[in-house]
Write a structure and sequence with these properties.
two-stranded parallel sheet; 2 helices; globular
Length: 191
């Protein structure tokens, strides 16, 4: 795989093996989609090798058995899009605060298998280029007030987080000048 030096997009699905270290040699990779299903594999070393890819801007990661997200995700400081689907991760690691180039953060589960994410942490305000924050089908009970400081935010999708407004006060989205889309459907929002 490492000899495909002109490769810009990589899609890997249904692999039950550790991802090859040769991926770190793919310097022209811009977009990577990984759909991985093996709960016995530690993907942390793989994420560390991704930090060696200077052109990687988009990472789509789908994995049903992921319980914790590796701290090494913070090494991908050049990422602009991070899309994580169908997982059981309950919290975002603090190292993600280093992803200051991030424009899109989608952290979702599905209507059939609810995610475990409970908090949008306070460091979210450090992602100053963030334009989209989507966390549907999770168990959110806290959204940091720092979300309201993300002046480039255009899209916020929090639908199907049923407990959100029982225990959380919504940040003041009215102060977001670029906001075009706000989805709070099925959140039990109280007037």
């Amino acid at each position: 795989l490492g000899s495909c030096v002109l490769l810009e997009n990589l899609y890997m699905s249904d692999t039950n093996q550790v991802l090859p270290a040769s991926v770190a040699k793919l310097e022209n990779i811009v977009s990577m989609t990984l759909k991985l299903w093996n709960d016995e594999i530690d993907y942390s070393p793989f994420f560390s090798s991704l930090a060696l890819l200077p052109n990687l801007k988009r990472l789509y990661f789908e994995e049903y058995h992921l319980l914790t997200f590796p701290d090494t995700i913070g090494e991908l400081t050049h990422l602009e899009e991070l899309i994580i689907r169908q997982n059981h991760v309950a919290s975002l690691p603090d190292t993600m605060r280093k992803l200051t180039s991030l424009k899109v953060l989608r952290f979702s589960a599905s209507q059939y298998q609810r995610g475990e994410l409970t908090r949008i942490p306070d460091w979210i305000g450090e992602l100053i280029h963030l334009e989209e924050l989507s966390c549907p089908f999770n168990k959110l009970i806290y959204i940091s007030p720092a979300t309201a400081s993300l002046k480039k935010l255009k899209k916020v999708d929090l639908h199907c987080n049923w407990k959100l407004f029982e225990q959380c006060e919504l940040p003041s989205f009215q102060n977001l000048p670029e906001l075009e889309f706000l989805d709070l459907d099925s959140t039990d929002m109280k007037e």
